[in-house]
Write a structure and sequence with these properties.
Length: about 170
């Protein structure tokens, strides 16, 4: 297992639409291991493959918030199949937008479907943090970031800040 470098905004890779996984190969298993390792190291509760630069529809999550009882999830080709009318506001962050948090409104409950590493299709209903997290991560597979839900003013402000930081780093 390898901790891989995170892709940070304004990197345009984050805007790619990721491709479906066709077959669960050794490479896909290794990618899942690396994603989990990278996510736990960050630390974060969710990671999409594109956040380590791989444009495939794969997500890792662990919303257990306990180091003693890890509950790693690997979602292959996940999709939302139902979302509640009721909404909920949650303060979100993203490993690709470090140290920036803002409230985002999303459906309160969702049902989602995915394939696990054994190739089984699983359908699951979620509320709370898991519901927020799975929606946030599936957005990544479609090139969508949580800042896209904020006002243009807020989004421009955070993009400008990270563009400046990227420039400084490139110039250093
Ligand atoms: Ni994110």
């Amino acid at each position: 297992m390898t901790i891989r470098p995170l892709v940070i905004i304004p990197d345009s890779k984050l805007r790619l639409v990721s491709e479906p996984v066709q077959e669960i190969t050794g490479e896909i298993r290794r990618l899942a291991d690396d994603m989990l390792e990278t996510m736990y190291d960050a630390p974060g509760v969710g990671l999409a493959a594109i956040q380590i630069g791989v444009p495939v529809r794969m997500v890792t999550m662990d919303v257990s918030k306990s180091e003693d009882e890890r509950q790693p999830m690997v979602l292959i080709n996940p999709e939302i199949v139902w979302a509640s009318e009721a909404k909920r506001v949650y303060e979100e962050g993203c490993l690709s937008i470090p140290e920036y948090y803002e409230e985002v409104e999303r459906p309160d409950r969702v049902r989602f479907r995915y394939m696990d590493l054994e190739g089984a299709t699983i359908e699951q209903e979620a509320d709370g943090l898991l519901a927020t997290c799975v929606q946030h991560e599936i957005d990544h597979l479609n090139g969508v970031l949580f800042i896209d839900y904020l006002s243009k003013l807020k989004r421009d402000r955070v993009m400008t800040k990270f563009k400046k930081a990227a420039k400084r780093e490139a110039g250093a």
